[in-house]
Design a protein that fits this description.
The structure holds two protein chains of two kinds. By secondary structure, chain A is mainly α. In chain A, about 65% of the residues lie in helices and about 5% in strands. In chain A, strand 3 and strand 4 form a beta hairpin. Chain B starts with a helix and ends with a helix. The chains are: A mainly alpha, B mainly alpha.
Amino acid sequence: MDYPDIATFLIVSVVKIAIVIVVLLTAVAYTVWLERKLVGHIQNRWGPSRVGPFGLLQPLADGLKLILKEDLTPPHVYRPIYILAPILSLTLALTSISLIPFGNFLHIGKNITTPLQISDINVGLLAILGVTSISVYGVALSGWSSNNKYSLLGALRASAQMVSYELALGLSLIGVLILSGSLSLRDIVDKQAGRVYGFIPNWNFFTGFQFVAFFIYLMAAYAETNRTPFDLPEAETELVAGYHTEYSSMKFAIFFMAEYANMITVGCLATVLFFGGWHGPVPSFTPALLKPVVPVLWFMVKVFFFLFLYIWVRGTLPRFRYDQLMAFGWKVLLPLAIANVVVTSLVVALRS
Amino acid sequence: MIHPVLFFVFAAVAVAGAINLLAQKHPINSALSLIVVMGALAVLYLLLGAEFVAAIQVIVYAGAVMVLFVFVIMLLNAGEEEHDGAASRVAKIFGYPAVALGGGALIYALATRGAPGMQVEIGRFLGGTRQVGRLLFRDFLLPFEVTSVLILIAIMGAVVLGRRGGEQ
């Protein structure tokens, strides 16, 4: 980081924040499109196809529809918390994306150097875990304040599930932390640069032998974001729509946006921690002009892969039963995560 | 420059949250105020330069402990507290003197401002993640392990009590 004065720093930061928000919200809208299209094809139908070519304008139509719908507030809700809950959800979803590094340093002119990341803090990973652990409240409070038994059941399921899987999630990341020796996401990515034997990328997933950790992380993250096969908080066959049953119009859309933004964050974090962040799998020979752009493209390709995986899993797996969900979290993922920590630290200790 | 301003803002938020915690009648509002207090404390740690402690404060207290509080309040569907406004006898005999004693101790400590080496300056906390880890797992390993065994005993006790209630 290198800025001539504080005004430049502020301008650069605001520009970065604006770009990230625009890209993120566009990505959210088109992840919804991608999901409908892919799940459609998995189920042998077309998915959205009417609005624009390949239904590409469908997200715009959906957004317009949700904005123009009547915003009902049921009379029996507890108003302050009912309104606070969606705001909390989206705010926290946007906060966690601000900590993700999506590229290397960018040099503008001679004396401005800025990291491609909104804020680089040295406990970045812990901060993201903290934000994730607080985002339970968005779901829990929305369900409670709706004053509706289906919403309440959804919220209870969500909070129990998120607290249980947070343990496995946190423990699965310790292997990566032991390997990189830092809590800063930028340092973790920098440690994964280069290749082993000339062709295997030096990513934690391959050369760090963190396959098990990655599996645990992915399962726990799916549970944290309330996605299939762990989407019991919004199981529509049992709970109408779960915690957001009483929400309509933009308030519902905000929950929806928060869910997809969280999916993108999970993809980003998986990329950063296990798959080398912005480092590509093959050496690239790019002209100097494209140097800052290519790593960001690699990063986006990897995140896209994780989003694809999310949707693929949703189209493939049935929903867990609640006791199976809890048993899986506590009796399978947690011991596996602890075993991974022990083995990784043993190997690191023996090597050094 | 900006640090003292932030300190006073978040210290005020913490105190206001704590007062609101007592003043609110509904348990969920009190729980939310407690979360605000913990968040404000995390910011104060951050101002000292203790990022690790701040992050742990948020993850453990605001994220895990308070989620369970809110969970229990939701599960029991606890309603508004009914209170006749009169203080209990225990509060009269022990509570008021204890508050006076605590307040007096605090004022004395603030007035004498402690020994020169005991004060912590804003942003000058010498204890990153590495130092905290070293202290916990090397210098204070025995107390750390004893505490974890204590917590394990508490969990097992809770399970035993829960089981016994279920059989009857």
